[in-house]
Fold this protein.
Amino acid sequence: MKKFLLNTALVSGLMFPCLTAGAEELALPQPDNTSALMKIIDARQSGRAYSTKPLSEQELSNVLWAAFGTNSHGKRTIPTGRNLQDLKIFVIYNDKVWLYDGKNNVLNKYSDADLMPYLTTQDFVKQAPVHLIYAGGKKYAEAHSGSAYENVYLYAAENGLATVIRGLIDRDGLHKALNLNDDEVVTYHQTIGYPAE
């Protein structure tokens, strides 16, 4: 057995030399955090304590535009695989479920259903005034959601809001409640609001 382990270690060292002692290293200069964007990236963090103060419609519009709106060049604010643009953002706001139309910057009422039971595996979730639920085509939904929720994080960091992305949700229950197609999946839930004082 000892001989086998020794041989395995020797072969691993030959196959993966970067894992052996003395691997080459390149020390990089410190990041230049002086630009506005780099400062926002530096300030980005997850927040799990919320004030009950509601978000204004203007603030909500800004958040959703950052996530998946249409910019001044007529393009989406995030890249999408094969330009499918099939991300769906459901918004729980004022006790209703809305579907964001990023091309027209409109919330279309989607449902009166109470989706909170599918989301509230952690107590702080109930305090947040706005909830974003990301969904889309199976192939790129994870990537599209990641781009969108990071934009929301950056907007929050710049504007004094709290947010956190969550995977502890009932995806199957949400899929059914939102009446999604078989080729669509629910990916994540993001809470957003003002931080608790």
Remarks:
- The two ends are 60 Å apart (CA to CA).
- The CA atoms of residues 137 and 184 lie 4 Å apart.
- The chain has a mean pLDDT of 92.
